[in-house]
Each structure stands twice: as C-alpha cells, then as structure tokens.
Design brief:
This protein is α/β, with parallel strands linked by helices. It has 2 domains: 267 residues, Glycoside hydrolase/deacetylase (TIM Barrel, Alpha-Beta Barrel); 74 residues. It is built from 15 helices and 10 strands. Strand 5, helix 7 and strand 6 form a beta-alpha-beta unit. Helix 5 runs parallel beside helix 7, helix 8 packs across helix 10 and helix 8 crosses helix 11. The chain is globular. The protein starts with a helix and ends in an 8-residue tail after the last helix. The relative contact order is 0.17.
C-alpha cells in the first residue's frame, strides 16, 4: 500500500507541478509583509542597491498567460511558464498601485539619463510569443492602458510549430507517468546518460533542462521523435496553450500600441551555437519583425537569459538598443543596456498566507527582497 501511495503521490506531483512547501511560503509571506508594511523594504532595497526610489527601474517578465493555470498544467504545460489570466490582471492592478508603468522606449530613455522618474517604475515584458499573449494578456493591458513589449521568436510566429522545451517537457512528463525507461531510450540514440543522476528520479522540469543542455538540435529532435513513437503521441496531443501567436494578432497588437522585440529567430541559446549562427539569428529575426510590422526593432531578450561578451557585441552590431537577461537586478541610470535585469513572474510567484496575489509579495518579488544582489 505504501508503494502504491508513493507512486500515486509521484503522479500527482508530476501532474500538478511544483508548489512551495507551506512553511516556506509562510516564512516568505511573513518576511514580505513585515518588510513591506513597516517600510523597511524600501530602506533595504535602497541600501542594497545604493539607489534612491526615483532612480529605480524594475523589469518584470512573463511567458504564457492562460485561461486557467491548473488546467494548462494538467494538459502538460511547464508550470514555471504559466500565469492565469485572472491572476495576471490582479498582479497588474497591484503593480499599478505601487509603481508607474513605462514603455520600453521610456525605460531606455531613463536609463540613458534623458528623463526622470517620479517613483519606482516597472516595464512589463513577455518572452517567446505564446498565443495567450493575444488571447489573454493583450485585452488586460489594452483595457488598463499598460504598455508592454513582447519578445518573439520569428521562426515560430504564424506556424503550428511548438518550442522544443514545451514538446520535451510534455513527453518527459508523460514518460515518467508511465515509467518509460528514459535512460535506455537515450542510449538507443547514442546520448550518454549520467548514472549518478537517473532521469527517473528527477522532476520533469529538471530532466528537461538536463536534456536541453546535453543534446544537440538533431539529437534532441530524434529523441523526441522516439518518445512520441513509444508514447503514441501525435501533434494534436500537445497542450493547446503551447501554441504560438499568429502574425495577424501581432500586427493588431502593434496597431494597438504594443511594442515588439526579438527573442532570436529559433529560440537558440546564443552562447551555445557557432558565432555565425548567433549573429544570423539576431539579424534574421530583427529583419523579419521590421518587415512585418513596419517599425524599427530596437530591443532583444536573450533566450534563457544567456549571454556573453560576443553575444552582447553581436547585439550591438545588429542595431539593437537594449537586451534583457533573466537575472534579477535593479536597473538604474548608467547601467549596461545589454544586461538589463528582470524578475520573471509566474502563477506561484506571489503566494501569500492565503491569497495568490499579496500586495506585499508582489512588491517584494519585483524589488528582489529574496534575491542576492550580483556584482
């Protein structure tokens, strides 16, 4: 019975996705509430970053905005990519009550010392280009008059293709649910597995990350095809929330005042490909966005936040004015415009004592109360 319960619990954990342990959530909530309502949060951030409130820009990042996060997780979406439409709207309202919103161009002008802020400000960004940005995020932003920038992977926009990380996560999760021997299949494809860290003992997200690290593009494609055959998975079986936005929707959003930037053409990790490939990814995505939207594309977000000195110089050479990472950092005047810090938010980011959208937790997450300042 214990073994059956253990297996059932494992399946439940795989289906629902990770949630912070209750005691950890309570501790974080208590720290956030105490710091926020006592006024110590701003004093701490000001001391830590050596920057007064009128000179701080925070950038928040989202990925897939969905109708219901729990339903999307059950369908096989990666939990850390998701936020439900209702929670997204509440977060936007919480942010509006505490910060000013800036457009990407206003944000860069500020960082270049061309303008001043009245109080802490926030830039809203989205990576990848899931269809939910049009179905769920755009109506909220348009109604509330909130500017945002959407970083798109141009090889995927307007196609039926899904990102490798979404396909792989779905397949790994399903393979673990039916106890398919992943290591054996890896060896069949000539991909060495680490015996000290069996995939079967990993969470689906951890296994997905490891495979994305060790597999080349052809290896990954062949392995996913093998998994699809073994699991009898067709293209229609993948989660509908993994679908990518179309060009008509992007053009409508652009006419509605939203801004767009590059997330490369094919979502490649720019630090892991040949320099010529990285340069072509940056050039091609920029050129296609400019041709489709009839506007200059000045801004970039590095896939997975990965960059290095060559990638930065390549972005500058291609004519980008700024580039976002995925590392938390306060952005201030004189900072590196090609190493912009961001706080990525998802469904569980602002869990409080009993609410999924605590004002204190939203402020604490955005300002990086629980982050260690780098540099």
């Amino acid at each position: 019975m214990k073994l059956l319960n253990s297996k059932r619990n494992d399946r439940d954990r795989i289906s629902r996705g990770p949630r912070p342990p209750r005691y950890r959530r309570w501790v974080k909530s208590a720290l956030a509430g105490g710091a926020y309502y006592s006024g110590l949060l701003d004093l701490y951030i000001q001391f830590r970053d050596r920057c007064p409130a009128q000179n701080r820009l925070f950038i928040v990042g989202y990925h897939a905005v969905v109708e219901q996060a729990e339903r999307a997780i059950e369908a096989g979406m990666m939990p850390q990519q998701l936020i439900s439409k209702s929670l997204f709207e509440r977060e936007i309202d919480q942010i509006a009550a505490q910060f000013d919103f800036l457009s990407i161009d206003q944000a860069i002008d500020f960082l270049e010392g061309k303008s001043h802020l009245k109080r802490d400000s926030v830039l809203v960004t989205f990576d990848d280009g899931y269809r939910g940005i049009y179905d769920h995020a755009y109506p909220v932003l348009k109604q509330k008059g909130v500017p945002a920038i959407f970083y798109l992977c141009t090889d995927y926009v307007g196609t039926s293709r899904l990102f490798d990380h979404d396909r792989l996560f779905y397949l790994i999760r399903k393979a673990m649910q039916v106890s398919l021997p992943i290591e054996v299949l890896l060896l069949q494809r000539g991909i060495p597995a680490d015996p000290a860290a069996p995939m079967a003992q990993s969470a689906p997200l951890e296994a997905t990350r490891r495979l994305l690290e060790i597999c080349s593009k052809p290896e990954l494609e062949a392995f996913m095809q093998l998994l699809q055959e073994k699991l009898d998975v067709g293209e229609a079986d993948f989660p509908p929330d993994a679908a990518i936005v179309g060009w008509d929707a992007v053009e409508e959003m652009a006419r509605g005042g939203m801004r767009f930037g590059s997330h490369t053409a094919g979502h490649c990790l720019l630090t892991q490909v040949d320099p010529k490939v990285a340069l072509e990814e940056l050039r091609r995505s920029k050129a296609l966005l400019e041709a489709r939207l009839h506007q200059k594309i000045d801004h970039l977000a590095y896939p997975d936040g990965r960059t290095n000195p060559f990638v930065i110089e390549a972005a500058r050479a291609c004519g980008y004015r700024s580039a976002c990472t995925t590392a938390h950092a306060v952005n201030k005047i004189g900072g590196d415009l090609y190493l912009l810090g961001r706080e990525l938010l998802w469904e569980n980011s602002a869990l409080g004592w009993s609410s999924k959208c605590s004002k204190a937790m939203v402020a604490s997450q955005i300002k990086g109360l629980f982050k260690i300042r780098e540099g």
